[in-house]
Amino acid sequence: MSASVQDAPLLPPAPVRGSTLARFLDSDVYASFRRSKLAMGAFAVTLVFFLLALAAPWISPQNPYDPAQLELMNSNLPPLWYADGVAPFTLGTDDQGRDVLSAVFYGLRLSLVVGLLGVLVSGTLGILLGLLAGYFGGFVDTLIMRVADVQLTFPAILIALVVDGVAKAAVGSQMDTNAAIGLIVLSIGLSFWVQYARTVRSSVLVEKNKDYVQAGRLIGLSSPVIMVRHVLPNVLGPVFVIATINLALAIITEATLSFLGTGLPDSMPSLGTLIRTGNRFLFSGEWWIVAFPGLALAGLVLAINLLGDWLRDALNPKLQ
């Protein structure tokens, strides 16, 4: 007996668990990403927009919001490929002498910041309410879902307009830039939380009846600990898809509010404010003031939407 044990081959050591990056590179999601040229292209375009926004202070020919760098003599200059074009204004200037290319870079920055913060607020609120509704059920579930049903009857842009209008009526229309950004982020966050809440609630209703939740209750874990540490990680897959798609919706909502004059102030305009400003000169021949911010907004939203569509299909087990 002892001889057979000694002659038995040694088992290989247990494999060391790889890093998070290694597991991701070996996952089905990454394999699906590599197979989809459209997803790779959308990711590349989105990454370029993010890098341009981050590097705006270093790559822009001028700071378009610094009055010391603006000259009215440079107003309404055409793009550089026109005979009247002047360097370094590659895409021309607006009526205040601001370089359009620089304004687009800085506008991208503000639009992405507002969009990301809006998604963060709406996602946090929606996930929290969805967890509470799905885990506790009863009156809590009924109350949260009826509020969600009522909000679904109104367009998101209308909710944002109402929140923005009520806040400005309460504190006054004169706000600094930070307060204006915070208000529009809050407006977007209160407009898009419903999708997160309904999705998380549906997933929690399934997860809370599984053995690991019952085991957590038996060993005395509190409900908040079970929800946050054990249930939440298992319901985040659909949330990532919603967040990606809602990022594009949040940017569009911010641009719409700014175009209507209820968004960010003219002193720190986003892409929506630049489009509103350039729209006044569209029929007078200065088409570049509105065209290039509009193209940047369209390209950014399209790339994010395509990325969100791919992520939705990649995380759908029925399509694997």
Rg:
25 Å
Question: Class of one domain in CATH?
Answer: Mainly Alpha
Q: Show unreliable segments.
A: 1-6, 8-17
Query: How many β strands by DSSP?
Result: 0
Strand content: under 5%
| Assembly state (oligomeric) | single chain
| Named CATH topology of one domain | MetI-like fold
Shape: globular
Helical residue percent band: 55-70%
Mean pLDDT across every amino acid position: 83
What is the overall number of helices?
15
> What is the N-to-C order of secondary-structure elements (H for helix, E for strand)?
HHHHHHHHHHHHHHH
Supply the CATH superfamily name of one domain: MetI-like
Give an account of the 3D structure:
By secondary structure, this protein is mainly alpha-helical. The chain has helices spanning 2-7, 20-25, 28-35, 37-54, 56-59, 100-136, 138-152, 156-171, 177-191, 193-207, 211-218, 223-231, 236-259, 271-279, 288-314. It has a domain at 102-319: MetI-like (MetI-like fold). The chain is built from 15 helices and no strands. Helix 6 packs across helix 9 and helix 14 (271-279) packs antiparallel against helix 15. Residues 1-6 and 8-17 have low confidence and may be disordered. Residues 108-308 form the ABC transmembrane type-1 domain. Pfam families: BPD_transp_1, OppC_N. This is Peptide/nickel transport system permease protein. The chain crosses the membrane at residues 38-59, 112-140, 177-194, 238-260, 281-307.
